[in-house]
C-alpha cells in the first residue's frame, strides 16, 4: 500500500493506492507553511487515518529537488524549502519517501493513466498560472532523481515579434530571474500581460478568453500572438524529446478551442508530421499530482520487491 500526497501552498491532499487503478483520495488538511514539526504531524495524522502501514510514502510538491544535493527548492512553503526533505521525512515517518515535482507527477499520471497511455514518450505540459512540464519515457519519469527536465517555461527564448501581422513583444522579466521566458506569456498571467501590452487593457484571463470566444477582435489579436509565441518553443521541445503526445493541464487546458489552435500551430512547426491531434487535453482531471505520486510510489515498491 502506498500513501501519496499532493502538497500545495494551501492544502495537503492525501490518497491511498494499492494498484494503478485503485487510488482513493483522503480528506484535505491545511498546509502548515512555517513550522516543520506541524508539517510532519499533519502527515503522520493522515497516514494514521489509513489504518495501515504503507510500503512507501510519495509526494507531489510544487518545487524542485536538486539532483546533486537532494535539497528541495520550494519557496511557497518555507518550512520545507532548502531541506533534504526525502531523508528528513524518512527519519520522521519511518517509511521510504519519494519526492517529485508536481508537473512531473502530472506527466506521470497522464503517461500511465491518462491521454498518454500507449505512448512511449510523453511530454506533459502545464498552462496554468504559468508554464511547466514533465517528461516520461518508457513509463519512467526522467526526473526520478530530481532535476529540471521538462521545464520548457524558462529560458530567454520568446520571439521578439509575434502574430499576424507581427508585433513587437517585450522580453518580460520572469520570476526565475531571466527575461523573455515562455512562462511570462504562456499561462493565465501571460494572457493578461499580452492583452495589456497589445491594447492597454487590463482584464482577467477568464474575461479575455470569454471575449475571444464571443468574437472580440482585440481578444482575437491577443490569442493570435499568444499561440504564435508558445507554439515554437513547444514544437522545439517535441523535436528534442521525440514525444508523440502532449497532454496539457492547468486552467488554460480547459479552453478546448485554444488548445486545438495551439495543436495546429505546433504540428505545423515540428519535424515529424502527425495527422492526429498531438497537443491534447489531459484526461486525469481529478488530482493528477496525487495520481502521479501514487504511481511513482507503486513503481518504487514493485522494483524493491523484485530486488528482494
From TrEMBL:
<comment type="similarity">
    <text>Belongs to the ROK (NagC/XylR) family.</text>
</comment>
<dbReference type="Pfam" id="PF00480">
    <property type="entry name" value="ROK"/>
</dbReference>
<protein>
    <submittedName>
        <fullName>ROK family protein</fullName>
    </submittedName>
</protein>
<dbReference type="InterPro" id="IPR000600">
    <property type="entry name" value="ROK"/>
</dbReference>
<dbReference type="InterPro" id="IPR043129">
    <property type="entry name" value="ATPase_NBD"/>
</dbReference>
Amino acid at each position: 500500500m502506498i500513501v501519496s500526497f499532493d502538497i500545495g501552498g494551501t492544502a495537503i491532499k492525501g490518497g491511498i493506492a494499492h494498484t494503478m487503478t485503485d487510488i482513493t483520495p483522503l480528506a484535505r488538511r491545511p498546509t502548515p507553511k512555517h513550522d516543520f514539526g506541524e508539517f510532519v504531524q499533519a502527515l503522520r495524522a493522515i497516514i494514521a487515518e489509513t489504518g495501515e502501514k504503507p510500503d512507501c510514502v510519495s509526494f507531489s510538491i510544487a518545487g524542485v529537488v536538486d539532483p546533486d544535493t537532494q535539497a528541495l527548492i520550494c519557496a511557497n512553503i518555507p518550512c520545507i524549502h532548502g531541506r533534504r526533505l526525502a531523508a528528513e521525512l524518512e527519519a520522521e515517518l519511518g517509511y521510504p519517501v519519494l519526492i517529485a515535482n508536481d508537473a512531473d507527477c502530472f506527466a506521470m499520471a497522464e503517461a500511465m493513466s491518462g491521454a498518454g497511455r500507449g505512448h512511449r514518450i510523453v511530454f506533459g505540459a502545464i498552462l496554468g498560472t504559468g508554464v511547466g512540464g514533465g517528461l516520461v519515457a518508457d513509463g519512467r519519469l526522467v526526473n526520478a532523481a530530481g532535476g529540471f527536465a521538462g521545464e520548457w517555461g524558462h529560458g530567454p527564448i520568446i520571439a521578439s515579434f509575434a502574430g499576424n501581422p507581427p508585433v513587437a513583444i517585450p522580453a518580460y522579466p520572469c520570476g526565475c530571474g531571466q527575461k523573455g521566458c515562455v512562462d511570462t506569456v504562456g499561462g493565465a498571467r501571460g494572457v493578461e500581460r499580452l492583452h495589456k501590452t497589445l491594447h492597454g487593457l487590463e482584464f482577467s484571463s477568464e474575461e479575455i478568453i470569454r471575449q475571444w470566444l464571443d468574437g472580440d477582435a482585440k481578444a482575437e489579436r491577443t490569442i493570435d500572438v499568444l499561440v504564435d509565441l508558445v507554439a515554437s518553443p513547444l514544437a522545439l521541445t517535441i523535436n528534442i524529446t521525440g514525444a508523440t503526445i502532449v497532454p496539457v493541464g492547468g486552467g488554460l487546458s480547459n479552453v478546448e478551442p485554444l488548445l486545438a489552435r495551439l495543436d495546429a500551430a505546433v504540428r505545423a512547426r515540428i519535424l515529424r508530421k502527425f495527422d492526429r491531434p498531438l497537443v491534447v487535453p489531459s484526461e486525469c482531471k481529478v488530482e493528477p499530482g496525487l495520481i502521479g505520486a501514487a504511481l511513482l510510489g507503486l513503481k518504487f515498491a514493485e522494483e524493491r520487491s523484485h530486488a528482494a
